[in-house]
Amino acid sequence: MLTKTRIGGALLLVFCLTYWWLIRDIRLLPFQVNQAFTARTIPELLAIIGSGLAVLCLILPGSGEKPDLKGLDWPRVIGFLVLMSAYGLLIRPLGFLLSTTAFLMIGFTMLGERRIWISAAVAVPLVVGFWVLMTQGLDVYIAPLPAALN
User: Fold this and answer.
1) Which spans are transmembrane here (predicted)?
2) Which tens digits make up the pLDDT trace of 4-27?
């Protein structure tokens, strides 16, 4: 039976397969060809996961229930969309460490954590650890601070 879930699953499958096909156009530098992690790795993973979920939508039986969008916290959703947009705009001027730490701490506050020291105790080591992993472990340059401070 053709339900909304199956139609959505079919459209998602078409999108993911098209996305997977277009990933081939991402150019790799000669030294990246044999690397384990390249510019294609995450897009390929997203295409595989999306295709798998789409197939599940197609083969699993639907519940027949309509989704309840009234129960969502729309102001929080919009707040996170604004926060993510601001993060995207501020990551270059502020640098990775400052902008990502601020992003996480504001996000924690929006989710209900009111103790600043807990937000900082989680965000700072996480951001610094990720930055060290990317720059030292994977040899990917990420500007840690604003250009004026470097």
Assistant:
1) 6-23, 44-62, 77-104, 116-134
2) 778 888 999 999 999 989 888 888
Domain shared by 37 and 84, yes or no: no
DSSP structure string for 84-125: HHHHHHHHHHH-HHHHHHHHHHHHHHHTT---HHHHHHHHHH
Residue 24 to residue 9: CA distance in whole angstroms? 23
Residues 97-146 pLDDT 10s: 999 999 999 999 999 989 999 999 999 999 999 999 888 887 778 878 77
CA-CA distances (angstroms) from residue 2 to 20, 24, 62?
A: 25, 33, 10
Q: How many domains does the chain have?
A: 2
Cα Rg of the chain, angstroms: 20
Output the pLDDT for position 66: 62
- Residue 99: is it exposed, middle or buried by C-beta count within 10 angstroms (0-12/13-18/19+)? buried
Q: Which domain holds residue 94?
A: 74-137
Look at phi and psi of residue 112 and say left if phi exceeds 0, alpha if psi is from -120 to 50, else beta. Answer: left
Q: What is the pTM of this model?
A: 0.57
